[in-house]
Specification:
With 133 residues, this protein is an alpha+beta fold. The chain contains 4 helices and 3 strands.
Amino acid sequence: MDRRALIGLALVAASAGSAAAGAPASDDGGAPAASYINLNAVNAAVVRANGRRGVLSVDLGIDVPDMDLRTTAAASGPRLRAEMAQVVQRFAAGLPAGEPPDVHQLSRDLQFAVNQVLGRRGARLLLGTVMVV
């Protein structure tokens, strides 16, 4: 393929992506902005396959459609972040060197922690990115 055509195609794709990013979100998917609480990224130290230290990074948030529970979750933000950090650190400590993280187990552990901090079910954990660097 001609390099100029490839560069042109990349520019068109980049401009289409930036135009889509500026568009308002549709109602067909995702959590409504009012019920979503971002808990930011949580990091923990791991041992990579070559024996060197690495970082497990988990980007997460919670969707809380119930208004009363959302008020509790917003007020419990620091407790939620602290509990999420503990769960991720405990998970990373048990991760064998060089093995990929078991995202299903991690999500179950994090969801359990969210329910414990809030005192009842009703908030849904949303995972963004789980990566080992």
